[in-house]
Batch of 2 targets.
Target 1
Amino acid sequence: MVGSTYYDVVVVGGGVAGVAAACAAADAGASVCLLERYGTLGGVATVSGVGTICGLYLRSQRLIAWGCSEFAQTFAERHILSRGASPLRARDGLIFLPYEIPLFHSSLYSELNARKVTVCLHSTVIGAELTAELIVPNNTDSNNTDSNNTVNEKEATQRISVLKLLNWNMPCAVTCNTVIDASGEALIPILLGLPCDCEGVRQAPSLSIGVRGLPLGEDERSLNVVIAHALLSSGFGVQYGSLAVLPGSKRDDHASLKYTLPKPLLLSNFPQHSDLELSARKNVGPLFEALKKIIPQLKNLTQTWVAPQLGFRTGTRPICNESLTAAAVLACQKPANGVAIGSWPIEIWGENARAEFSYFAEEDYFTVPAGALKARDVTNLFFCGRGICGEERAVAASRVIGTAMGTGYAAGLLASR
Ligand SMILES: Cc1cc2nc3c(=O)[nH]c(=O)nc-3n(C[C@H](O)[C@H](O)[C@H](O)COP(=O)(O)OP(=O)(O)OC[C@H]3O[C@@H](n4cnc5c(N)ncnc54)[C@H](O)[C@@H]3O)c2cc1C
């Protein structure tokens, strides 16, 4: 339960970005509370069974060099590389780091515990209250006394005063100086009725599935070719979505497969998340039966687990002081107010249930401007992770775990100033 009713910084959402934000705020000396609706941390990275960290390394055919924030690098070194994992190369010089979900999950707890962050699980934020305030703009003449200032010379603005939540179904409230919305879905602006980027096409969701019974000698790429051919020849064309081995997940005869739904998400069809979850789970059974029937080496294929939640890549986004654009990503722009490094290309899962990549130069990176993390309409509200302000194609680059940790840590520092 919430130990105290006041914190300097409250972080809403315990995904990778929220955890990094809470750590940064604690490192900056703030008292911090992290609120998470589930009974577990990691968000998409754990409940949707992701399994690989992208956005840690620069894209390069010749070297392996870090391309992320210090927090993400230290996290990877301390919890993943030190336990024997190593970076793997995928197509076109892309490099990623595979991780075990239980280990990843407990590592997030360790980082928060080490910094004495108050973690409130089973805590769903359901409301927020605004208060109006008048602030004197920075360029106002400092000799101007208060009595000389009219209301017009000051900026009328608003700040969050209270967050309301259900803690294991018990209503309660918390007050704070600043709020970091790490929900990935612009939760706080939605609750406040503020304008959001809530229309248009988002990427197709995917369901992760653990399997056993894969041929021992076969590598992931050739298995994916065999699977794709088998599904096509048994009548499961692109209209059923795609099924492929998650890169870096194959160990002996087991691996994680990723089933991607055939259609992108249309935000105007909201609410549809429940229907998509159910249809993904329903489609997987017939696809597996077809594989077992057609490919002799897969006749013993069995599902060992299915991710608790369908993975939604992006959703509603907030309106901030600045918006990250695809042009800035592709030009590797590094604005003066850049606060987080992005080294992953634009990766879009669209109509045909396959990833389409748009690259920027090898061994280069872009930086996310601070303005894309700071709410336009509320003075004490910040965003991070997959829920920053930006174009869909830009966030398709910045949403990966390495960069989400970077924008999280940056939001934590900004919120503690
Ligand atoms: C299918 C799929 C595959 C991916 N593959 C990769 C990959 O291979 N490598 C990679 O690096 N990235 C990958 N990504 C992207 C990456 O995993 C995510 O973008 C990243 O983990 C997002 O982190 P986040 O903290 O911003 O958001 P989230 O993980 O969405 O965290 C948000 C948190 O907020 C909580 N929350 C929401 N509402 C409330 C509320 N009302 N009250 C309290 N808490 C709330 C949620 O429960 C959640 O824990 C993939 C994503 C998907 C969907």
Target 2
Amino acid sequence: MTLIDDLRSAGLTGRGGAAFSTAVKVAAAYDNGAALIVNACDGELGAAKDAFVVAAHLGELVEGARLVTRGSGRIRYAAHRGSDTETRLIAAGLDVLDVPSRYVSSEETAVISLATKGLARPMTKRAPFVGGGRDSRGRRIPPTVVLNAETVWRIAQIAAYGPDWFRAQGTPAEPGPRLVTIGGAVPRPGVLETAAGMPLTTLLAAAGGMPSGAGYLWVGGLGGVLMPAADVPRLRWSSADLAAYGGSVGPGVIDVLDPRECPVEYVDRMLTYAAGESAGQCGPCMFGLPAIAADWHDLAAVRPGNRATVESRLTQRLALVPGRGACRFPDGVARFAASAHRQLSDHLAAHAEGHCPTSPTHAGPTHAGPTYPGPTYAGPTYSNSPVTPVAESTSRSSRVV
Ligand code: SF4
């Protein structure tokens, strides 16, 4: 059995969010003699699992990268500038790609552009860059494959323990162990190791559980969805269950909203942040996202008034934005905004009547503008409180559920 056979049998998919077949990507990398960029940026808001892999499993990560490049040595490790992850990778003597701390800078084609002396901005992908290509200015891009750090770690594990070990965890549709970062209003935020099919209640309990009165979870970051906390007891951590809300396990991020904060204002902050993160290259980002954020801001005001015109305009914009940018960033933000619009319709209606269900004194969003950095996260907490260990090799430092 070759590594490609093992990856195909295991059913490993990218753990960065796209869930594309890793066997297909690695096979294309072999065919084209592609260089590898290990993306350890934790690019999604609230994510910390790449940091965990680098901190706790660096040896296996390096071995996985060696397998993907068949020892050619053409490997770079992408990490956000000034992060602990970057410090650790440099200290280990690895070739580090210093990525600016912007949301879209860690997108797959943005890191390829940066690695080839271009700007850290997404490139239009006419065909996957694993076969090489040219950017919009005609610069030649050599064959390059980008794999998320957790994905590369899993490759090393599959090579060491076999595809049957991997498939023994998770569901047939989403096999294997996977990391998830749980943050927000939980007592023990951190990185957990779990597998698809785990009851969501069990997963959240490992982070200390949801606070009393919790109303919503934000799943999947800026490209994710909002879902009601009341539905958690009947859901599993799987894309099949999350599909009912338009979501998926995606990049493995869950943020529990603080029940003391108005959820409409929370979404307002995220959309304002997203509107400020455009790389300024495409219309949907430059104009669409700021317009969506402005519409939401209007809807979020706590004052009596008819918002029908704004509601209708927002709905039209949310339908217009997807599929028009060079990358999927605006698509994801539109999905999140549409999900929030659906889930918070009653709350928005209350604001339009002049009161906020969260707080009688709340007057609507007050944040200053697009410089808001998004939810902050303290990084992985490597405490050992395993609930159901899935494998000796994977339970070394993360909490396992
Ligand atoms: S869609 Fe937005 S983030 Fe993506 S390339 Fe265009 S401007 Fe940049």
